[in-house]
């Protein structure tokens, strides 16, 4: 229910045409008839949907494969969260180089470290 309301408020899902939304409703049931909003139930003022232009829509569509495959599910962008963090499989050299550049660029650093 929270996801459906958030999608509506950001203009990301006017209908449930998304296969992911349809599958979730199929599995968990449709919460919309029982959903009660406490507060403002309207689009977020100034929210810019990623699909507002063809270019930003293309970038949004490319983001999932980049995140999933090229960054190994975000491993390139995710710093270790604690001292016991051990990667299950070392990143290949090109991805380790990208990580060294991406982490400080994004302002992400493991605790107690100044450089990744």
Structural account:
The protein has helices at 2-9, 19-28, 54-70, 93-106. By secondary structure, it is mainly α. The N and C termini lie far apart (39 Å).
Q: Can you give the helix content as a percent range?
A: 40-55%
Order of helices and strands: HHHH
The residue ranges in which pLDDT falls below 50 over 5 or more consecutive positions are: none
The average pLDDT score comes to 78
Distance between the termini: 39 Å
Query: How many extended strands?
Result: 0
Topology (elements, then pairings):
Layout lengths: L1 H8 L9 H10 L25 H17 L22 H14 L10
Attribute tags:
116 residues, mainly alpha, single chain, 4 helices
Briefly say what this structure is.
Helices cover 42% and strands 0% of the residues. With 116 residues, the chain is mainly alpha-helical.
């Amino acid at each position: 229910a929270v996801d459906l309301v958030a999608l509506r408020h950001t203009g990301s899902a006017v209908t449930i045409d998304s296969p992911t939304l349809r599958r979730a409703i199929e599995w968990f049931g449709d919460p919309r008839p029982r959903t009660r909003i406490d507060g403002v139930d309207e689009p977020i003022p100034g929210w810019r949907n990623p699909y507002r232009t063809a270019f930003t829509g293309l970038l949004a569509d490319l983001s999932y494969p980049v995140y999933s495959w090229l960054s190994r599910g975000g491993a390139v962008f995710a710093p270790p969260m604690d001292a016991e963090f051990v990667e299950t499989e070392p990143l290949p050299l090109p991805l380790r180089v990208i990580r060294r550049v991406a982490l400080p660029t994004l302002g992400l650093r493991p605790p107690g470290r100044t450089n990744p």
